[in-house]
Write a structure and sequence with these properties.
Elements lengths: L3 E3 L1 H13 L4 E6 L6 H11 L4 E7 L1 H8 L8 H9 L6 E5 L5 H7 L3 E5 L10 H6 L3 E5 L7 H10 L9
Parallel strand pairs: 1-4, 2-3, 2-5, 3-4, 5-6
């Protein structure tokens, strides 16, 4: 199956049947403004928890509200295209709200995944997923990777370390 950028309704239609056929749907979300190895490893770990990985992507408007006027660096369609091209990602849903609660409550994934920087009691959608019999998984962060830190380095003009030859 090729990855796709879908509306919530399209995702429900496409993956609802798979869920009824016993396949496990995994959902994670974020801004994913600058993709880095920490994101990639997180997607791979999330995908390993089920048969389908759907990524909820904050729209440009919601990223600006969450991260400030200088963000996002890349427009939502470009961020979505990059995510959809990843082997571990089956679908991308762009959402305008500040949180993915509406997407999660309608999609009702079997597994909801967030990074370990989110305290368990603050993971949006936890109640809905657990009430539907699903589970919530908190993945450990990959040390040394942060979009905010990468952007700070870029803005300060810091050079990336040279690769050893």
């Amino acid at each position: 199956m090729t990855s796709a950028i879908l509306t919530l309704e399209e995702a429900i239609l496409r993956f609802g049947r798979e869920k009824r056929n016993g396949r496990r749907i995994v959902f994670t979300n974020g801004c994913f403004d600058l993709l880095h190895p920490g994101h990639i490893r997180g997607f791979e770990l999330a995908r390993a928890l089920g048969n389908v990985l759907i990524v909820g992507l904050n729209s440009d408007a919601s990223v600006r509200q969450l991260k400030g006027p200088g963000r996002p660096v890349m427009p939502e369609r470009e961020r979505a295209e990059i995510l959809a091209a990843l082997e571990s990602v089956d679908a991308v849903i762009i959402f305008d709200e500040l949180t993915p609660r509406q997407v999660i409550s309608q999609l009702l994934p079997d597994v909801l995944v967030k990074g370990g920087d989110w305290p368990g009691d603050q993971i949006v959608g936890r109640e809905e997923v657990e009430a539907a019999g699903g589970r919530v998984v908190s993945l450990p962060l990959v040390p040394g990777y942060s979009t905010t830190a990468i952007l700070r380095k870029i803005r300060e003009g810091a050079r990336a370390p040279r690769a050893e030859s």
